[in-house]
Amino acid sequence: MDKNNINNLNENSSKNILVLGGSDGIGLAICNVYEKLGYNIHITSRAMNKYSSKFKFYSLDATKEESWQKFIKNLSNKNITFDIIINTIGILHDANNNAFPEKSIKGLNANFFMRNIEVNTLVSALCMKYLLGCISKTKNTIIAHLTARLGSISDNNIGGWISYRASKAAQHMVIKTSSLELIRNYNRLVVVGLHPGTVDTKLSKPFQKSAKKIFEPRESALKLTKVISNLEINDTGKVFDYAGKIIPY
Ligand SMILES: NC(=O)c1ccc[n+]([C@@H]2O[C@H](COP(=O)([O-])OP(=O)(O)OC[C@H]3O[C@@H](n4cnc5c(N)ncnc54)[C@H](OP(=O)(O)O)[C@@H]3O)[C@@H](O)[C@H]2O)c1
């Protein structure tokens, strides 16, 4: 696969990127980086905010199939193909329902567990199902799902946060399984997971005290775009951190 050289503005001037969850957090920072690189930026969110109007905005509640169907219908009228799709949708806590990651198995709450699976795992699978119609079979395409090192089973040495960990490990299975299936018909498609590091967003706010290093969203976005620019076809199905190092499943 040719390198997706993000530093060449002329090459990229007509390229399209779709960022799911692009109106906030790491997603918004990624949009700002790719905007400077000359990409056409398309974003989804459940609701518009003051940042989303900068980009081509689509309403999407990504855990709901009916919402995907409407979104895809809207897109197909525009006949767009995406060169890069980045899924930044995820939860770690749910402040509205006072639900936080479990310190121990005794703290498990079935609703919160299912919410993690829905937002962190199911959305990735629905993204693969519905967005296949918006990618080219002949051009290099990247679909990257933001994930977390905590979803690595082999890297899990301390336990805790069982709902988040389980949902992110399952997300890795979605990435691996879809990559194996799709390479047969989309031989220029790379599907990966990307760990952004601990980043100063609303998702990580309550947990930042224990972090060794916290990135600003822009810093993480710049690192992730560099990792994306170095991806090659045989990277499909793998999970990388912000420095481009492989995270084992
Ligand atoms: N921040 C970190 O330290 C960190 C560390 C490791 C991994 N990550 C991963 O990076 C990704 C992005 O995180 P972030 O820090 O940018 O978080 P964020 O600022 O909270 O943004 C998360 C996005 O997820 C969407 N979302 C949240 N709850 C949803 C729900 N119930 N249904 C549908 N969409 C929902 C939101 O979309 P709306 O616009 O629709 O609200 C929002 O854009 C996540 O997958 C996270 O697990 C983050």
Give your account of this protein's structure:
There is one protein chain. This protein is α/β, with parallel strands linked by helices and 249 residues long. The protein has a single domain (9-241), classed as NAD(P)-binding Rossmann-like Domain (Rossmann fold). The chain contains six helices and seven strands. A seven-stranded parallel sheet has the order 3-2-1-4-5-6-7, sandwiched between helices. Helix 6 links the parallel strand 6 and strand 7. Helix 2 packs across helix 6 and helix 4 runs parallel beside helix 5. The chain is globular. Residues 4-12 have low confidence and may be disordered. The structure holds NADP nicotinamide-adenine-dinucleotide phosphate. The site of NADP nicotinamide-adenine-dinucleotide phosphate (NAP) has 26 residues, from helix 2. The site of NADP nicotinamide-adenine-dinucleotide phosphate has 26 residues, from helix 2.
